[in-house]
Amino acid sequence: MKVFRPFISCLFFLVSFTAVAQQITYKEVKDIPYYPNSSDSYINEKCKLDIYYPENKKSKATVIWFHGGGLTGGAKELPEYLKNKELTIIGVGYRFSPKVKVATIVEDAAQAIAWAFQNIENYAGSKDKIILSGHSAGAYLVNMVGLNPAYLQKHQISNQDALGIISLSSQAITHFTARNEVGLKETQPTIDSLAPLYWVTKDASPILLITGDRELEMVGRYEENAYLARMLKLVGHTDVTLLELDGYGHNMTYPAFPLLVKEIDRLLAK
Q1: In order of start, what are the domains of the chain with their CATH numbers?
Q2: Dihedral pair phi/psi, residue 63, rounded to 5°
Q3: Cα–Cα 20 to 30 A to 239, which of 68, 99, 133, 160?
């Protein structure tokens, strides 16, 4: 009988642990306006949040997630992989070009992030544990807001207040939709005030840049991120990481999400 006691003890622990884990329940709230007093019909249509959070436990961190779509389409989303991981997730909707300019879309992103800082305590989160993240156009938005301090300063928030930035296949030069607004082709590289590269600084939150395989990604996407990482390091940023997912193209969120969660755990442990 002694031979089986460690097994029985281990089994009891696993059952008990599973029972505790199952006690965490989650709630989802949809279509919360982050411009709450707007009379603009397009703002009221698009500028909304969905929130997923633990009902009976403090979340370990909050992920503000911006969807992709070239700044011309898409819809707010709560990534399935991030659910049931003791996280608060905020899926952000925003306005699109050509109805508004790209500069206005970046302002939407800043407004949504500011809303989260101001209200996250009501959704099991903490202001000091907010992650800015997104894919493609969404990653571009978090890099713009995370690197240029002016966007959040308008809301009395520092861009360094975020626990971290986790960017999945962002453009680092001026977004091709912004270039299209002024008649430039997608193959005409530009770095101006609508480029994350324009705002490289040592004074930003930790940044993880993830792209797909350089041979399978969108045109120049890996190279742009490699240049962004290099320039951030050259100006003195001390916590920048670049990862390339071999064998994956632009639609690389599936293998990237486990890396996102791992990075959150790393940042929480600092």
Answers
A1: 25-265 (3.40.50.1820)
A2: -110, 115
A3: 68
Residues 88 and 62: beta-carbon distance below 8 Å? yes
**Angle, CA 163 vertex, CA 30 and CA 21 arms, to 5°:** 60
**With contact defined as beta carbons under 8 Å apart, do 116 and 50 qualify?**
no
- Tokens, residue 5: 């006691």
How many angstroms separate the CA atoms of 264 and 270, rounded? 10
Which strands, in side-by-side order, build the sheet including 240-245?
26-33, 48-54, 87-92, 61-66, 130-135, 164-168, 207-212, 240-245
Model pLDDT for residues 36-73, shown as the tens digit of each residue: 999 999 999 999 999 999 999 999 999 999 999 999 99
- Per-residue pLDDT tens over the stretch 135-162: 999 999 999 999 999 999 999 999 999 9
**C-alpha to C-alpha distance for 198 and 75, rounded to whole angstroms:** 28
- Which CA distances in Å does 269 have to 61, 162, 177, 238, 266? 12, 15, 38, 17, 5
**What is the identity of the amino acid at 96?**
F
Helix or strand holding residue 92 (H, E):
strand 87-92
- pLDDT on residue 186: 86
Average pLDDT over residues 185-200: 96
Give the residue from 121, 135, 129, 123 showing the smallest Cα distance to 92.
Answer: 135
CA neighbor of 105 nearest in space, from 51, 37, 151, 60 = 151
